[in-house]
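User: Just a sanity check before I run the rest of the batch. Below are the structure tokens for the first item. I only need the designed sequence back.
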């Protein structure tokens, strides 16, 4: 190896170690950047003779070092698992929120909830049975019945508002999905162009992976990397993003809970088929709109309908204490409907006159309270409104508890997977400081080689004088 070759070797070392220091500085600068994957300079020795020939000679010593590339430390398997776990976590967390809102609307258990109001209502019938001729007990009965009707209408309205709000959130989520998909397509085009020009794409790839993760959290989307560096994004096998092309989604269906049977909520490709979304936040929205909230509404409507029909049927068998002018004594009239409406949406009290409460079971004695006793006993019916409502609340509570436990467990799993991915691809300041010292010492050594060679050349030149 000639002296000038030694200079070239040391110079290549200076370039390589300086580039390594640059990459270390890039890693340190982005230690807190979300989604950034640390990078590493790949070094390779330069062989002295790369194309052997018959008369070529080699000193047996290489010609220094060269940079073969900058590697992005990224584990595709870990990334795919992180996306899957995050998608499931977002689905369960959104379901947890929906059930919390339903429980808040029901307000059970509570001393002032519908269950307590029903108990007071049945007790009011017992008070009327004990004092059939007492106007105050009849007035208290109508007041408690009005409270129940008002509570059911309010709860039903709150559930309807929850449905409409969830439908609006679905529209907003789909807008985010379309925007994110467009961002991925744009990055695909930029990465593919950079690959052709042999330019670095690590930062662009990090940004694209963050967008794909966002899509996974929303829709459970998966991805596959192509040879040109672009990424295709799929929804249950259906292409959402292919290269720089995007298939947009749209949410369709009723925005009100009462219109859901005619126009159920769905997500579909614009001008195309329904999109199969089974996990992620969007899947949770769809489940809330097609099953969770409608089931709660149907359960409450069922209780209201059962209360209306059972009370009205028994009330019609009784007799009231109506005074029909010009008579001054009661002229019993057979009871009519006690409640109006058909379900929780329109339930009301059909009676506004306490004397029209049909407490008696016979017209010959309007101040007898046998029918009021029969109405009070409806609370004990195995298939009555009271028992049905309790079962309904218990079912909602069990479902909410199950979702809460799954959501809590999945949150731990999601955090653990994210931590494992971060440990592999994230920046460690301790490691970067170690690398910095290593590259610094190597740079100083290469500079020392140049200094020694320069001194040697100077001595050689002076010897010739």
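Assistant: Here's the designed sequence for the first item:
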């Amino acid at each position: 190896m000639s002296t000038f070759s030694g200079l070239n070797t040391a110079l290549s070392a200076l370039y390589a170690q300086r580039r390594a220091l640059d990459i270390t500085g890039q890693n340190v600068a982005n230690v807190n950047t979300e989604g950034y994957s640390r990078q590493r300079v790949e070094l390779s020795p330069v062989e002295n003779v790369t194309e052997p020939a018959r008369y070529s000679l080699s000193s047996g010593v290489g010609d220094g070092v060269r940079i073969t590339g900058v590697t992005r430390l990224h584990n595709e398997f870990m990334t795919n698992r992180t996306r899957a776990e995050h998608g499931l976590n977002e689905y369960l967390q959104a379901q947890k929120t929906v059930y919390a809102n339903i429980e808040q609307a029901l307000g059970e258990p509570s001393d002032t909830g519908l269950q307590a109001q029903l108990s007071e209502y049945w007790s009011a019938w017992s008070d009327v049975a004990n004092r059939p001729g007492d106007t105050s007990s009849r007035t208290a009965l109508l007041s408690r019945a009005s409270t129940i009707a008002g509570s059911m209408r309010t709860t039903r309205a709150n559930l309807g508002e929850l449905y409409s709000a969830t439908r609006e959130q679905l529209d907003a989520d789909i807008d985010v999905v379309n925007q994110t998909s467009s961002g991925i397509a744009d990055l695909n085009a930029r990465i593919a162009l950079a690959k052709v020009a042999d330019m670095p794409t690590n930062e662009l790839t990090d940004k694209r992976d963050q967008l794909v993760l966002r899509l996974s959290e929303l829709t459970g989307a998966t991805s596959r990397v192509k040879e040109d560096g672009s990424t295709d994004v799929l929804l249950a096998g259906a292409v959402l993003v292919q290269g720089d092309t995007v298939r947009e989604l749209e949410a369709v269906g009723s925005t009100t809970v009462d219109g859901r049977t005619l126009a159920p909520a769905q997500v579909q490709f614009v001008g195309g088929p329904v999109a199969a979304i089974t996990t992620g936040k969007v899947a949770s929205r769809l489940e809330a709109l097609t099953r969770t909230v409608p089931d709660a509404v149907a359960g409450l409507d069922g209780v209201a309908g059962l209360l209306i029909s059972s009370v009205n049927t028994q009330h019609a068998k009784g007799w009231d204490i109506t005074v029909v002018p010009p008579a001054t004594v009661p002229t019993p009239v057979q009871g009519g409907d006690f409640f109006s409406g058909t379900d929780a949406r329109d339930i009301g009290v059909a009676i506004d006159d306490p004397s029209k409460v049909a407490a008696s079971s016979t017209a010959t004695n309007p101040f007898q309270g046998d029918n009021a006793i029969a109405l009070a006993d409806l609370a004990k019916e195995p298939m009555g409104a009271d028992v049905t409502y309790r079962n309904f609340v218990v079912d909602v509570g069990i479902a909410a508890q199950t979702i809460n436990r799954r959501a809590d467990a999945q949150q731990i799993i999601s955090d653990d997977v994210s931590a494992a991915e971060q440990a592999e691809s994230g920046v460690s300041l301790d490691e970067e400081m170690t690398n910095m010292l290593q590259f610094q010492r190597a740079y100083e050594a290469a500079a020392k080689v140049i200094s020694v060679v320069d001194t040697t050349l100077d001595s050689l030149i002076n010897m010739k004088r």
